[in-house]
Amino acid sequence: MISKNTICLWYDKDALDAATFYAQTFPDSAIGAVHRAPGDYPAGQEGSVLTVEFTVMGIPCLGLNGGPGPKHTDAFSFQVSTEDQEETDRLWNAIVGNGGEENACGWCRDRWGVSWQITPRVLMEAFTGTDRAAAKRAFNAMMGMKKIDVAAIEAARRG
């Protein structure tokens, strides 16, 4: 079944590598079809991987090997809600440890430049809760972090 809405991500030539990494790292993720170019094109030759259908946590995606060109920016990111520090650490470390880079406030980039927000559930609960003072304390604590520290967010919420 073809999805009505699919996220298309542009890669230089590594769409299959990226999709493989995502499928191995995130639950409910998989590689679907791999389509090869029917002819030569500016970024590749006939028979090279042109597109890869994959899912990331149930979200349909298409990796396009479009060659050097548009770069990923923080204007698009996957926000991944985690249950605890262990899951936060596992996903963060997988992304950063595979050639990615840390950013601020729970954001990181994978080695292909795609941005990820590894966001513990407790952080979102703090921001969206009715206790605005606790939300501000949690927000201020987060502002000094790269990877989110669940215990520090919980402590900030408590005051």
Walk me through this protein's architecture.
There is one protein chain. The chain is an alpha/beta fold. The protein folds into two domains: 59 residues, 2,3-Dihydroxybiphenyl 1,2-Dioxygenase, domain 1 (Roll); 82 residues, 2,3-Dihydroxybiphenyl 1,2-Dioxygenase, domain 1 (Roll), CATH 3.10.180. Helix content is 33%, strand content 28%. It contains five helices and eight strands. It has a four-stranded mixed sheet. Strands 5-8-7-6 form a four-stranded mixed sheet. α3 crosses α4 and α4 packs antiparallel against α5.
Largest sheet composition: 4 strands, mixed
Mind telling me the CATH class of the largest domain? Alpha Beta
Helix content range: 25-40%
Radius of gyration over all CA atoms, rounded: 18 Å
How many domain units?
Answer: 2
Q: What would you say the CATH architecture of the largest domain is?
A: Roll
